[in-house]
Write a structure and sequence with these properties.
The complex is a heterodimer of chains A (about 550) and B (about 350). With about 550 residues, chain A is an alpha+beta fold. Helices cover about 35% and strands about 20% of the residues of chain A. Chain A folds into three domains: about 150 residues, DNA ligase i, domain 1, CATH 1.10.3260; about 200 residues, D-amino Acid Aminotransferase, Chain A, domain 1 (2-Layer Sandwich), CATH 3.30.470; about 130 residues, OB fold (Dihydrolipoamide Acetyltransferase, E2P), CATH 2.40.50.140. In chain A, the strands form five sheets. In chain A, strands 13, 14, 15, 16, 17, 18 and 21 form a seven-stranded antiparallel β-sheet that branches. In chain A, strands 4, 5, 6, 7, 8 and 9 form a six-stranded mixed β-sheet that branches. The longest helix of chain A is centred in the middle third of the chain and has 15 residues. Chain A is globular. Chain B has two domains: about 190 residues, Ribonuclease Z/Hydroxyacylglutathione hydrolase-like (Metallo-beta-lactamase, Chain A), CATH 3.60.15; about 130 residues, 3-Layer(aba) Sandwich (Rossmann fold). Chain B is built from ten helices and 19 strands. In chain B, strand 7 and strand 8 form a beta hairpin. Classes of the chains: A alpha+beta (about 550), B alpha/beta (about 350). At the A-B interface, helix 5 and helix 6 of A face helix 7 and helix 9 of B.
């Protein structure tokens, strides 16, 4: 555990990707095999089930430290991370309250802790409590932090999957794309060995395994700079959830981009699954479609409609008819069991067209290409994106392979300009992670007569320097405190950008925004000059009309 | 009439007609220590500790300064004033004010751990205690300074082995002097940014014994600094000045580094939670040692700290001051041009 805590510390403090890479390589070279498997699992989001929830852990800390509940909350909002707050509050090793049994203090491995978590999952509270207390007692602050993070949740500490894959590839002398594929999909770190996972000759076949997604960057400058338009294919960019449909051994698997297996959530796909050829992997967009016209033309429903479907375990009949989910296919990655990723895009596209045409189902569509013989025409087409229910264009080089991860060069997204509105900040809350103890999470309002109506929260879009200035403003101009939230004198005006807008009866303003963020600080504007609720409703009307 | 009032110019003793650490120009100012949020420009007459004066002269220029030693009372309009070691930086003092049998103490900034150069914090019995609360949350519990020094030395040796210069960002008055001894123990030469060097010189002139250092000059060669140690104020972090030391590693020495997010936000390679302020336990210990019936908490987590004291049965309230705005030390334009 000490080794792993040291790794997390190094990664957490290093500012350079190469240092992180080196730290991971050093770790992988020296770590016990079992620990290595667990580290891969943890850094790729495969944490074991929580042995206790965060309230349990928090209460335990409060009990040991003998501090009032409100003081714990103050600390938490200052630190911005529960696991770290607890690690900072707990007494030093060996000084925990008396009454605890004297435990074996030999150094335990990471896998010991994680496997112990699993073994006591169903045990009574007392047993899990004792295990946590005994563990804390033997750990220094860094180890406690890591231990708490393993229990409480998302292990986001600045290691991207790409860096980890690179480090593993170097350590094991296997190509990064092989590693990326191996560690994707469904595997259980408790029963998987490092050999199963990483060796070139691995025999364990997991039929559900998706391919790592290829992601694009936004176009820099003018698309015309990309060269001859005939070397490129343009498609609409759809706003749903990126996903892969897999059929192997006559079984269907559906993966979301977050590498979550979501097969059971979309019964629509089960309807066309029998018609899919076996040994097939499709990449595309999971998206709600309006198929009422029956003309095969893609009419996506707003993302907000899809949100009513995801996160639900049981889907009602009403949802199935009101928010039917289709799949707009972009690419074909495997056909008849053969990996096609190295084939040129244009060849894959031709094959994809044939496959989709053969299946012939209204919920499985191909993403249409946008024809243009010069970049100017494409500019004009892009301007009509909203009308199509799309958020812009995707540009793909005809001869490009299907790469893994976010790579520059062959695929670009060329989105339409965001919608914007001027609003005033009315609430502020302290941020998390590197924004700890800084007011960086804001709520914005528009005017409605002489009232201010909150309509969006945003956390991003300002520079560190601007955040520091706003933080200082909040500290000097807060009116009231409600728990961690401060109401702030409505004075600072910001331009809020967003990708979409939908009517919502869950929000006071009557609208819900898609991807709201701060586009700039309008220090030239006063609160009297911000937009009104009517302006916002007008944007909604025009957006729905596709204008 | 309370012995000390909270006014818009600062803490005021109406009977003695003097202010303590005023943030606007006044006639008579009693100064706890020479950090710029406590010792401000423009007052007519300053009273401070002997060792505070050279820094005030450096920073505020020539003024009327009266200096005293610790525990050497002076009287102003019948009010007895004495200074007592606060352990924060060289010369830092708590101000004890007594009139008609009533005693108030203003802590200024303080720490309870003896750092070996600032004088050991002395608890002073009083009826009312005005305390700082910069780190008034229980997440702030410092490691003993020797442990932190070991960490810093270890980090420097690693950097040295990798051919990197160790640039330590530290407050030019206080922290910079405090880390000098452990830094010089590495045997590597220590270079100072001009802002740190000026303070260093002033303290040497005042007779303080400090390890040997060199100033980073425009003529300083990279070969001289490479793999060695540089101390710079926070204003120099990320500046063209610092980039000239490449390859280098930046280590921040500040209590704020206790929380990971702060180190990451500052983009530092290493954070050392070395503070010249009392931690949570230090604050509580100091408050209890005064035996005060009433406590006022100034700058920091004053709301949480005073609420906690109230729940512990010690009457406490928070007051708004203009202290504590100096954590990000400003360096003057001329200092910024201090290029290697």
């Amino acid at each position: 555990m000490k080794q792993f805590a040291a790794l997390v510390y190094t990664i957490g403090t290093s500012t350079k990707t190469n240092e992180k890479l080196q730290a991971l390589q050093d770790y992988f070279a020296a770590a016990p095999e079992k620990d290595m498997v667990w580290v891969i699992a943890v850094f790729s989001g495969r944490r074991p089930k929580r042995i206790v929830n965060s309230t349990f852990l928090k209460d335990l800390c409060i009990e040991i430290c003998n501090i009032p509940y409100w003081l714990f909350e103050e600390c938490y909002h200052t630190v911005g991370d529960l696991g770290e707050t607890i690690a900072l509050l707990l007494p030093e090793p060996g000084t925990l309250a008396a009454g605890l049994q004297d435990v074996n203090t030999t150094e335990k491995t990471l896998s010991y802790y994680l496997e112990h978590f699993i073994s006591i999952l169903k045990e009574p509270d007392e047993i899990r409590k004792t295990f946590i207390l005994n563990s804390w007692q033997q750990m220094d602050r860094n180890e406690k932090f890591v231990f708490n993070k393993l229990i409480t949740g998302g292990f986001r500490i600045g290691v991207s999957q790409t860096i980890m894959v690179k480090a593993l590839a170097k350590t094991k002398q296997v190509s990064p794309s092989v590693i990326a594929h191996r560690i994707s999909g469904n595997w259980d770190p408790a029963t998987t060995t490092a050999d199963d996972l990483l060796s070139e000759s691995s025999s364990t076949i997991d039929h559900s395994k998706p391919y790592p997604f290829y992601l694009s960057y936004a176009v820099e400058g003018e698309p015309a700079d990309l060269g001859d338009i005939n070397e490129w294919t343009a498609e609409w960019k759809w706003d749903g959830i990126r996903g892969q449909i897999i059929k192997r051994n006559n079984e269907l698997f559906v993966w979301s981009r977050g590498e979550e297996l979501v097969t059971e959530k979309f019964p629509e796909y089960h309807a066309f699954a029998p018609a899919l050829p076996d040994g097939l992997v499709l990449d595309g967009e999971i998206i709600c479609l309006d198929t009422s016209a029956g003309d095969g033309i893609i009419k996506p429903l707003p993302f907000a409609v899809l949100q009513t479907r995801i996160g639900r375990k049981n889907i009602s009949k009403k949802q199935l008819t009101g928010a039917p989910v289709g799949f707009i296919a972009y690419d074909i990655l495997e056909y008849e069991g053969k990996d096609l990723r190295e084939e040129p895009f244009i060849n894959r596209r031709t094959l994809l067209e044939q496959v989709i045409a053969t299946v012939n189902n209204p919920m499985l569509l191909i993403s249409p290409t946008v024809q243009a013989t010069d970049w100017q025409t494409l500019h004009t087409s892009r301007a009509g994106s909203r009308e199509k229910g799309s958020e812009g264009l995707m540009l793909k080089r005809n001869n490009s392979p299907y790469l893994s991860g976010r790579k520059k060069g062959d695929w670009w997204k060329w989105k339409i300009d965001a919608l914007t509105i001027d609003a005033v900040m009315i609430y502020a809350q302290k941020g998390h992670g590197r924004r700890s103890n800084l007011y960086t999470d804001y709520t914005f309002a528009v005017k409605d007569g002489d009232k201010l109506v909150p309509f969006a929260k945003a956390y991003s879009g300002l520079t560190d320097k601007e955040f520091a200035q706003v933080d200082a403003f909040v500290k000097r101009n807060s009116i009231e405190k409600f728990g961690p939230v401060r109401t702030v004198k409505p004075e600072l005006v910001f331009e809020i950008a967003f990708e979409g807008i939908a009517a919502s009866n869950r929000h006071k303003s009557g609208v819900a925004l898609r991807f709201p963020r701060i586009s700039r600080w309008r220090s030239d504007k006063t609160v009297d000059e911000i937009n009104t609720l009517d302006d916002l409703k007008e944007i909604l009307r025009m957006y729905n009309a596709g204008i | 009439m309370p012995l000390i009032e909270f006014t818009d110019k600062g803490l005021y003793c109406p009977q003695g007609q003097f202010y303590i650490d005023p943030w606007k120009p006044v006639n008579r100012a009693v100064i706890t220590h020479a950090h710029s949020d406590h010792a401000r420009w423009g007052s007519k007459h300053y009273l401070c500790h002997h060792l505070t004066k050279p820094i005030l002269q450096l920073r505020l220029g020539d003024n009327q300064y009266e200096t005293v030693a610790w525990n050497e009372p002076v009287t102003m309009n019948g009010v007895k004033i004495s200074l007592h070691p606060a352990g924060h930086i060289i010369g830092s003092s708590q101000i004890r004010v007594e009139y008609g049998g009533e005693v108030w103490v203003v802590s200024g900034d303080y720490k309870t751990e003896d750092d070996g150069i600032s004088g050991a914090f002395e608890p002073v019995r009083c009826h009312t205690f005005i305390t700082e609360s910069t780190f008034g949350l229980p997440i702030y519990k410092w490691k003993p300074q020797q442990e932190i020094f070991n960490d810093i030395q270890h980090w420097i040796i690693q950097n040295n082995a990798a051919g990197k210069t160790s640039v330590l960002i530290a407050y030019s008055l206080g922290k910079a002097q405090r880390i000098l001894k452990p830094l010089s123990e590495t045997g590597l030469p220590v270079f100072l940014h001009g802002a740190v060097f000026n303070v260093h010189e002033a303290l040497l002139h005042a007779g303080i014994d400090l390890p040997a250092v060199q100033r980073v000059q425009p003529t300083t060669l990279k070969a001289e600094t490479q793999g060695n140690i540089v101390i710079a104020p926070s204003g120099a972090d990320g500046s063209p000045w610092i980039k000239k030391f490449a390859p280098y590693s930046v280590g921040l020495c500040s209590g704020w580094m206790q929380v990971r997010g702060n180190t990451r936000r500052r983009n530092a390679d290493a954070g050392f939670a070395l503070s010249d302020h009392a931690d949570w336990d230090g604050l509580l210990q100091a408050v209890k040692a005064t035996g005060a019936e009433k406590v006022f908490a100034t700058h920091g987590f004053q709301a949480a700290f005073s609420r906690y004291l109230n729940e512990q049965g010690i009457e406490a309230a928070e007051i708004k001051t203009e202290y504590g705005n100096d954590e990000e030390e400003n360096i003057t334009e001329t200092e910024k041009q201090d290029t290697p």
